Amino acid sequence: MFEELAYRYGLRMIWPERPGYGLSEECGSQQISALEWADVVVQLSDHLGIDRFSIIAQSVGTVFALAIAYRFKRRISAPIYLISPWVSTQAANTFKWTRRLPASLVAKTISLTLDVMWLFNNKTNKEQSINKEDTSTNHPKTKNSRKTMITFEEDELLASLDDGPLDLPTDFPTHRPLRHFVRPQHMSLYLAMNQRRMSEPYSQGQLCDVMVALEKHHMFGFNYSDIKVSVSAVWGDKDSLIPSKAIDTLASSLRDVRLKILESEGHDLVWKEGVMEWAMRGISERWKQQKNA
Question: Is the distance from CB of 254 to CB of 225 less than 8 angstroms?
Fold first, then answer.
């Protein structure tokens, strides 16, 4: 979905899939740790002949990104860009209820919840498919109504239907809420990707991420204060997953951090206009500076 931005700024984007996602192999939540994943990413970069690279991370991906910076500082072209960054629940004193439960019970609870969500979404997708077939066969007028509703939902999602290129004078406009990144010409692809994602049992990957984030099986293996690479982060003050006190902890822990707080924005910043462009443009400018140095 971000191919056009990468092309615009001359970047090669690589998205390593953690265990349990996409085509990667599944593994138990006890088997994966942030520092071990850092080794995997560096092995991948060695295989591709990449000596140094930049990083963009979102939410729990922050833990894995900073693990790479902690273990392989020399390989990073700073700064690291963090979107809605996750913070250690131990350091920020959040999600206290998970500490009272043993890891096995937390894992079972989360796994059951994810399985139920997958079954529900899978059932809903099938019902929608059947209803769509019935509608197209017996009720042509209803089909038009459904099309109108879908168009309305897309309009709600986009908040604007201009097809022109996005060219903002600043990274994040302050005079209005940010629009969704997905432009109208990408809407069908976005909806198809989301529907397919929700129809696949990818709960193993989510379970691993959650258990790593909550530090139930393994501690991170480092503190944010250990990170010697500069960081640029953005966070929405309406983020229901990462509270303000967690961001205060992030800001006070990292040695070199620039933090941008966006008003009235939630945890979905990665899909909002200007946010990924802010990160990609920053990376592109940094590489140009290094090249010309």
Answer: yes
